[in-house]
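Homework-ish question, so no full write-ups if that breaks the rules, but can someone show me the predicted structure for this set?
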Amino acid sequence: MTQDDIARTINRYLELASVAEGADIAVLYADNATVEDPVGSTPHVGTAAIAAFYDSVRSPNRTIDLITLRVSGETAAFHFRVVTVVDGRTITVEPIDVMTFDDRGRITSMRAIWTTEDIVVS
Amino acid sequence: MTQDDIARTINRYLELASVAEGADIAVLYADNATVEDPVGSTPHVGTAAIAAFYDSVRSPNRTIDLITLRVSGETAAFHFRVVTVVDGRTITVEPIDVMTFDDRGRITSMRAIWTTEDIVVS
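A: Not a homework solution, just the prediction itself:
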């Protein structure tokens, strides 16, 4: 697993995160992976819980764009923009996520660093 | 310790990181804190090792600016720019660092996510 592999997985993750069903996102994760989104909340552990989490936050009118990606060793951090249109309002949040990877390139943990104070509604 | 406390500590850290002696930076860290810079390298553990690390990377002509800061729970991630002028060349790198904090607001771990591929020389 190279840094390019990690970068490819994160780009795939961001593509899927805007449109896919939870199960299709969860396959990017290792079996006992953890998702803590936002950091400080109770982590979702394992494929089924992770799939359910992504299903719970899906929205039909959402675009996601990468702003900055850094990869070092088996860890990546990326700053990205999530824009969701709901009832004519545009909701924007730009978290920094931190992911770790196993030697097969699967995500072993995701921690999303943002709070409701970072949300901009226009 | 609030999110504002963490933000203040990170701003202080970035101020010090461009000019201060290692010992003055190390006081921001908890006693048994770890510094892994870049991620994948051997961590520096404890105040003396952390102070020595910062002394080892000091440079007289360096400016550091915060680009983006996110804080969630007791974790912060921040994207920042380090510009160092050496022998008439300008060396720029923009890592994403991840820090955790104890309940007294001291840094318990720092992980710097960047590689030499992220360095721009002009």
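Now go work out the reasoning yourself. Hint: The domain at 3-121 of chain B is CATH 3.10.450.50 (Nuclear Transport Factor 2; Chain: A,).
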